[in-house]
Amino acid sequence: MSVETLERSSTVRKPAPRYRVLLHNDDYNSMEYVVQTLMQTVASLTQPQAVDIMMEAHTNGLALVITCAQEHAEFYCETLKNHGLISTMEPDE
Length: 93
Known about the structure:
The chain is α+β, with helices and mostly antiparallel strands. It has one domain: CATH 3.30.1390.10. The chain is built from four helices and three strands, in the order H-E-H-H-E-H-E. It has helices spanning 3-9, 31-41, 47-60, 70-82, and strands at 18-24, 62-69, 86-91. It has a three-stranded antiparallel β-sheet. It is elongated, with a radius of gyration of 18 Å. The N and C termini lie far apart (38 Å).
């Protein structure tokens, strides 16, 4: 077995870095609107999950919406912003 073969087979593929999409509380949007927007933006969210996220942001000022690959996180974050919600993303460490 050549050295080249050993190097190639020992390469460890790192999983793509994951990002947290965060929802911030605001004093403008109704609770119902926030829940509907969350469900429209992140199709995998159920209504009870969306309500929990909205209540978490309302109570604590910040809530985790979803943790996912960077490209998806950017899409979710931008979509929430485009619907008038305050959203940021950060690396999931």
